[in-house]
Design brief:
By secondary structure, the chain is mainly α. It has one domain. It has twelve helices and no strands.
Length: 238
């Protein structure tokens, strides 16, 4: 698969679905940004983060016990809930991108698709996170490979909601066999845009300017990855 073709196809889809593709992406970015900001400002979480940053700035590394002393059960529980909502919302955005890439008329409501199989989405997230963490304990590169091994699980769930989380993970492993480096290089092709996005966030202290690159980059990457899944699926079906 040629990354150039996939990216060119994604840009064409973006032009053909303007302005909806940007409005849906803005909605997704706003929701996840608000969640992240709320998560950071919850009682106990904010204090722990501040103490961590202060210690690091002094060249110290705070102990887990010190950070834990600032946590509050209610804030920690809500932060955990918000953390678990991310993969559900991301699955919904993948659904929008997949429907758009297939010419099936992606819509705003697609962002909520992850909630229709909430439990399975969370199971995929939890299981793949645990597997990746276990590989990371052995070595860095196997952990990266493991992460790419499970990348298609959410798309498989969107296509076949009747499948279990483990089935989706197993099928993703089968689909990605021999294709992990291919997808890694595709991701690497977006590195320049990542760095530009980061530069805008760090160097331009204007809130209105912060999401400009993300508003374009989010659907660009989402549609490219959805198209990659579609081509991978088609090639394996032959």
């Amino acid at each position: 698969m040629q990354g150039f073709e996939l990216r060119a196809g994604a840009r064409k889809l973006m032009r053909g679905n303007t302005p909806k593709v940007y409005l849906v992406s803005i909605l997704f970015i706003v929701i996840t940004t608000v969640m992240s900001e709320l998560q950071f400002r919850l009682p106990g979480i904010s204090a722990a983060n501040m103490r961590f940053l202060e210690a690091v700035s002094r060249g110290e590394f705070p102990t887990a016990g010190l950070l834990y002393s600032y946590f509050r059960p209610g804030g920690a529980a809500l932060a955990g809930l918000l953390y678990l909502l991310y993969p559900v919302l991301e699955t919904g955005y993948k659904s929008y991108c997949l429907n758009t890439a297939r010419g099936q008329g992606g819509d705003y409501k697609d962002i909520l698709d992850g909630f229709f199989f909430f439990g399975k989405t969370l199971l995929i997230f939890i299981i793949t996170t645990i597997f990746t963490a276990l590989w990371f304990m052995l070595f860095f590169f196997p952990a990266i490979a493991a992460r790419y091994r499970y990348r298609q699980a959410y798309y498989i769930l969107l296509d076949a909601p009747e499948k279990s989380a483990l089935q989706c993970i197993s099928e993703s492993k089968r689909m990605m066999k021999g294709h992990k480096m291919e997808l890694f290089l595709l991701d690497l092709s977006f590195l320049g845009w990542y760095l530009l996005d980061l530069a805008v966030i760090l160097l331009i202290p204007l809130p209105v300017a912060l999401p400009v690159i993300s508003i374009w980059l989010t659907p660009y990457m989402g549609l490219t990855h959805a198209a990659y899944y579609g081509r991978l699926e088609s090639s394996l079906a032959v």
